[in-house]
Amino acid sequence: MADRTAPNYHLRLEWVYGYRGHQCRNNLYYTAAKEIVYFVAGVGVVYNTREHKQKFYLGHNDDIISLALHPEQVLVATGQVGKEPYICVWDSYTVQTVSILKDVHTHGIACLAFDVDGQCLVSVGLDSKNTMCVWDWRRGKVLATAPGHTDRIFDISWDLYQPSKLVSCGVKHIKFWSICGNALTPKRGVFGKTGDLQTILCLACARDEVTYSGALNGDIYVWKGINLARTVQGAHGSGIFSMNACEEGFATGGRDGCVRLWDLNFKPITVIDLRETDQGYKGLSVRSVCWRGDHILVGTQDSEIFEVVVHERNKPFLIMQGHCEGELWALAVHPTKPLAMTGSDDRSVRIWSLIDHALIARCNMEEPIRCAAVSTDGIHLALGMKDGSFTVLRVRDMTEVVHVKDRKEAIHELKYSPDGAHLAVGSNENSVDIYGVVQRYKKVGECVGSTSFITHMDWSTDSKYLQTNDGSGKRLLYKMPSGKEVTNKEEFKLVQWSTWTCSLGPEVNGIWPKYSDINDINSVDANFNNQVLVTADDYGLVKLFRYPCLKKGAKFKKYLGHSAHITNARWSHDYQWVITIGGADHSVFQWKFIPERKSKDALHIAPQETLTESHSEESDSDQSDVPEMDSEIEQETQLTYRRQVYKEDLPQLKEQCKEKQRASATKKRVSPPSSSVRLHFIHGYRGYDCRSNLFYTQTGEIVYHVAGVGVVYNRQQNTQRFYLGHDDDILCLAIHPLKDYVATGQVGRDSSIHIWDSEMLKTLSVLKGHHQYGVCAVDFSADGKRLASVGLDDNHTIVLWDWRKGEKQSAIRGSKDKIFVIKINPYMPEKLITAGIKHIKFWHKAGGGLIGRKGNMGKTETMMCAVYGWTEEMVFSGTSTGDICIWKDMYLIKTIKAHDGPVFSMHALEKGFVTGGKDGVVALWDDTFEHCLKTYAVKRAVLAPGSKGLLLEDNPSIRAISLGHGHILVGTKNGEILEVDKSGPITLLVQGHMEGEVWGLATHPHLPICATVSDDKTLRIWDLSPSHCMLAVRKLKKGGRCCCFSPDGKALAVGLNDGSFLIVNADTLEDLVSFHHRKDVISDIRFSPGAGKYLAVASCDSFVDIYNVMSSKRVGVCKGSQSYITHLDWDKRGKLLQVNTGAKEQLFFEAPRGKKQTIPVSETEKIDWSSWSCVLGPSCEGIWPVVSDVTEVTASSLSSDGKVLATGDDFGYVKLFRYPVKGKFGKFKRYVAHSTHVTNVRWTHDDALLVTAGGADTSLMIWTHEAEGHRDTRQCDSEESDIESENDGGYDSDVTRENEMNYTIKALSTNVRQMLGIKPHLQQKEPSVDERPPVSRALPQPEKLQTNNVGKKKRQIEDLVLELVFGYRGNDCRNNVHYLNEGADIIYHTAAVGIVFNLSTAAQSFYTEHTDDILCLTINQHPKFPNVVATGQETLQTCQSLHHLFMCGTP
């Protein structure tokens, strides 16, 4: 079978021809090393002109459009376009990323600028608001952000002489910004009478608040402060695109092709007109200038870079050329020389030398060029044009040989036959014409089999056949030169091809991803010598495959650089290089082809070799030698933890249900019960889908999680304490290096991570806002300051936090495949690793991003666990096949077989490691994994006498391991926590059910024990007294959903999921009898009270069967329910059954015959029930919540004294109601601990304890019942019910009115809100529709007025000064009057003004920076900050509400 692995060769970018001059400006600079930095497509280029060498920065994934140079001239910032564009700050010497800044801008980053000391970077986005953002770029942190302007911003600059001042300019505006706190405040430049209002294209700042700017009409505007001081008229003939400030003065460049130099006071020094020089041409337009010493760099619109030496300014050097704007499609390579020919929509054909990396010839044609071919002898160059013609030139001197026009549509492909006799020309008219070369290109044949445009063609080696591909995805074969179509498939197979550039055909099936029907691969070229194939596609990827590659979804190596679509790719004649050309970026890339042997050595030389992006990532399709997926891992990969409804959705759902609730608010609601419950003990540990989640704390207690609870277990006293801050399943847990703080991550729509103290159980920090669906892994750094986390979203986002501040430091998409583990390097907190399905990645922090590289292991293994070793570069990871991989940096050094089956957990010790696997073995290793020092098998035989339960099976799969206090702590997949003594004995500490839902729960009629039965096919008996252990367990053939003790407690009935049920001895769990009468799940089972003569068995077949226990015969069947049975209860006499069904029916049947009875409501209330577990009927109507359409109340249980009804529901809430709960929406106390459904609740016989079972969280929770008067001093985990009705605690109209005030007013296009009052002259008549001001997001329509006004002289408006304000805002604000200056002044607010009122002089002074009503005010009480006041206003952008701190001495 063909090899499906990636080829053993790779490509290294060697040269990029071109410079991006179109649509970009100010993007060309000298670095400190006198190299030139600029960008092309998605690549940052550092070009050393002296040595004629290029280095490349490849950290972007789309077109770069902006560039700024750090004041020290080594670091460069570049910004890109894209949906989620980011900024990279990188080192021009090593071309490595220093920082990534992301998550603020959309669409793209238009401008960048560093401040004078290089600490801050400002960026401007391409979004509709042209958002401006100031960054602390080293930390990747946003310092301030603000909407920039309603129209495009073209340039931005820091004021080099005043800290925290900026200037931006663009379409018809210039703005002067100041940074204060985290706010950017603009003042618009005033054009006044000095100059016309027009578009400003570029800027430079000078001393004394002077700013120079270049305008669209070629004038230079000089600003003093925010006012236009003077203009330098006609500095350029038209728009000034670039302005560069240096020590000597300023350089400007314009559309007129001139570069002008000015001194520091903007007096002209000299003009350099590039159009007049030897290399110049009409229409040359300057886009970028950089003046440094006696050298000037000039970048042009048409992708050239000139270097001018000042004293020889009429002889500029042309140091870089590329194609001009327009798509680039045509590419051909010379058959015998290292030359490449390209032709573009700019109508030029160019010949490049691949050895000298230079343009050696250029010729302009009449039409845009779409394809090219060189004859086999290298004499003729044929060019296919967009208008359907083709031209043949002599390569030697570019003179025309012939021009033929037989078609009207574009010629997309042409090729000479290997014998040189014919030229095949494929057009968009669906046909291929064959021309005879010797007959002066006379047409000799035509191929007309295609139904769509021709995309690719190849000749056979004997020149007798031609194959074509067309736009409809067909591959056809023709006889040559006649053009007759060959339909015999066998003939296809015998042909030998001289080239292979087709994208369709059996040899290249593998270049297409599996199951795709797309045609996004534009070009293919095969290298027969090395059996390798290069492809170019619409996503800007160059890929290397093996050739032939027959199976879809073959492996490849991929290279980024071109940003958008790559139109063509060809091997050079000797296969040394690959040439690729970009469509929209019209750049030519030259890649060196490197066989694998050499590429190993190259790693140590070329710095950019190590760049992630260029380093080909292996593709993600399967390999031929993938090991079998382990069943446990397979199961775990499928878990998504998605929920239909999250707890976060509850408030919204309640809002929606408010109407419902108001309707029922007429009746008084039942108050909650006086007694409460407190969580006391949980049987369970989450091991079935979580790993490494079990640790010793500082004090020797054990911390782990189950359901939504963090548990701290004291093994000496066998007691538990709980962290109840989470409201859904906890999926991961990590412990701080000092072993006192714990981090836990949960499931949720916007899922949170809590950091809490294991001693006090207090929350220290909650981190949210960056993970969707859930957090699946967390880890603390060695210094404990940072926390890393991984989300469950599709990209498995990785976030690095400063957890105490709650700040996100960096974030990045982790991997498409699931990540199981994240670890921060203990020696260098900037580095971390993630590992998971088919990958391990090594990351390092760069500003607000992370840069990751895949570990290179030859074959892709799934990693289940990983730890750092004894030095910063050693990493040890455990695989799904039982190996330990040892890594140095990111290279695999060796693998060691450690376990049979996956290695789920490992832990690093001072000297050595401990590992645990699916095989149930704990192994101790030395520090190099050379020797296994000791193994412990987890078996029943070695269980110590003090154990709190029984091992379900030998060698359970080990999911967590931790060491401390002379013991090894082990967590298993079966939900057991064990402590292994170094000498061998094993103590079982805690256990719960295994994976599968737990539904069956019954408490014993007179002992403190309970029974549970679960989908994990076990029946278990638990001791609820202080020993808290599992007393007995029995494996069943099937899972079960219900169980019940007989009234004397000697027998236990168990209903199973296959429709059968058993009665077993309650002590030994041995069978007494079993029946199998039904097909569907047995959903509830109950002995009749008293002697327990009858047994009622309810099933999901919607029947209840009644059996006589003594004679073991079925004596009755209750029929008539419309749906499956959910609950049943006997009355005290044992004569009547109450039944609930899935259709929300409450039915009554007479026992033992099962006759259906209809009982009026008034009568049912008189019946004395022996138990109450039903959820329907008038006496428990109030237990259904407002949002009952999304959640079910699954279970209830009434205490023996008949006072308290406990319920469990789908949201994981346990609630207590006062019984009977008549009327809707009774009040309750609610407790969160279970994460998803609570499936069952039961009081013990003496009401001392409440026992609850969780569905999917497999846990059994025991709550102590605390009577009235017992105040719970601990943090209260109960929440009083969620709907407040008016009669609680009185009613006050003012409070209600203020509560209902709404300050949000629809956003207008202007920042002014509509006023509520009506102006006096309008009060008589209603304003008609057309008199209302137009409200629109667009710019206001230009009125005639505005246009005529420009030339007229305007009268100066005298300034108004605020003198006195009457009024104080007391109608809806509170606590907003304060004394200042030891009682000499008072401060208050009204409207948008802060007022300081002097009590002795009655003078007012004002703070007027607000733009809208002030709603609150406070003063700083700290002696260090006398007279500092904060006021908050209402505003349209709800995000910036609190804004001004001001000093009251000088408001």
Explain this structure:
With 1451 residues, this protein is mainly beta. The chain has eight helices and 112 strands. The strands form 27 sheets. Strands 58, 59, 60, 61, 62, 63, 64 and 65 form an eight-stranded antiparallel sheet that branches. A five-stranded antiparallel sheet has the order 98-99-100-101-105, with no helix packed on it. It has a four-stranded antiparallel sheet with strand order 1-52-51-50.
Task: Name the beta content range.
Answer: 35-45%
Considering DSSP H and I runs of 4 or more, what fraction of the residues is helical?
under 10%
| Rounded Rg | 39 Å
**Chain-averaged pLDDT:** 83
Measured between the Cα atoms of the first and last residue, the distance is 82 Å
Helix- and strand-based class?
A: mainly beta
- Outline the biggest β-sheet: 8 strands, antiparallel
